Amino acid sequence: xxxxxxxxxxxxxxxxxxxxxxxxxxxxxxxxxxxxxxxxxxxxxxxxxxxxxxxxxxxxxxxxxxxxxxxxxxxxxxxxxxxxxxxxxxxxxxxxxxxxxxxxxxxxxxxxxxxxxxxxxxxxxxxxxxxxxxxxxxxxxxxxxxxxxxxxxxxxxxxxxxxxxxxxxxxxxxxxxxxxxxxxxxxxxxxxxxxxxxxxxxxxxxxxxxxxxxxxxxxxxxxxxxxxxxxxxxxxxxxxxxxxxxxxxxxxxxxxxxxxxxxxxxxxxxxxxxxxxxxx
Length: 280
Fold this sequence. Notes:
With 280 residues, the chain is of the alpha+beta class. Helix content is 17%, strand content 28%. The protein is built from five helices and 13 strands. The protein has helices spanning 26-34, 59-62, 93-102, 116-119, 258-278; strands spanning 18-20, 40-43, 67-71, 88-92, 110-115, 138-147, 151-157, 161-168, 171-176, 215-219, 223-227, 232-237, 242-250. The strands form three sheets. A seven-stranded mixed beta sheet has the order 1-2-11-8-13-6-5. The two termini are 21 Å apart.
């Protein structure tokens, strides 16, 4: 993986639809985006959430102080796409937030993919179901992400649908359709992870990546991105300190066939992860 997360402008980009919450009903979302497995950006969908007010200054008022695991790779990359290795340090949450507010960190730092249910009692009080989710949808997990500029999550896809909410600060997201999977050179050991460094692609090693069609955009506070199951995404923090929340969910009774297609790779990923963990 490259050390820089300053993204070059990728050519031949596709576009993504962007709406205010007042412009798209849950029915329209389901009909035009969920069932067609299409990503979309909706602004203002979390405006009534208590968590929508979170900042680095007040986050400790909502989440009790406790020890948290913080990624601190010098490169800023969340993990190595080849080996899945990463560096981290445990520290009190209040200390981590103070470091970010004062700029005392010497490396990019990331409280990444941390289950809110492990940090607080009844997180649904602050992070409820989005109106675009049905009561019967199975909410797998709600995660919080708190980080600095200079961070990147390697390109990967999730087995469940993802609602990605930008709470504070900004991020740059690059999406690729499942149709681009072969052009993204999946890791043979962990096929849900791409070997391509989207920030600085090696076109000699990954020549077909030139033919992939990215969707690249910036998310602002108040934006929610629907990232359907199986869509590849690369997420970079290039501008400022930031807070994000994501919710993984499944719609158990749906005509969205991508969910069914995710079952074999999900089982394969679980088996490989268990095997690799036991052999480390």
